[in-house]
Amino acid sequence: MSDKKDEIIEDAVVVDEATPGVSEQQPPVVVEQAHVSDTEPVVATEDPGAAPVADEGPRVVYVQVPPAPRKLGNRGLGSAIALVSAVVFTALFAVVYALIAYANSGVLTFGFLARAEFYIPTLFFVVGFVLLVVIANRANWWAFIIGSLLVGVVVYFGSIGLTLLSQGIVLSTPQDAAQSFAQALRAPFFIVAALLAREVALWTGGIISRRGRRLRARNLEARAAYDRELATTRAEHERAAASATA
What we know:
By secondary structure, this protein is mainly α. 68% of the residues lie in helices and 0% in strands.
């Protein structure tokens, strides 16, 4: 038994000693180191924690434009002047009509002031003159010279029509209605009312047009100042944008 054990041990030793010999006979493995050329580009990896850099595009510069000046109108005060002139028209009409009545009857009286029909021309004067002021606005006096004729026509025919309606002309026969209308056309009451309406509108329109001329000058000055301010603002923003892009 001891001899067999020795053989086994000797065989094992021989096997263990032969293993390094086999490895020595294998050709050596040569490991070549990779040489990095200096001319090759180096690719840098992105840092996931870094904030992304946005590409700078064209900058948008917002220019704050000053508000345009509001044009001044003549309608409000012109209409108020027209209402005041209606009082003047009524007073002149009362005096002239009283003088006409005195020339016909020899009696100077103002009893007609208590009748509502007397104020019909005043009503149409207000309507016609206010419409003229609204349409003319800042126009020159020539607009009121022409418009005053229209105011007289409105007062003349409007007063005749409303007076005949208040007297019940719609209940009359066509022949009687035509006769009443013809008499009204020749009545001094309506003729004087139309002439006075034209004169009062003409001269009062001169006052209104004078103010309109001043308003036109102020509007032109305000517009010129606005254009200068706008040009200055744009020039400042253009200089600021040029210095920012430089």
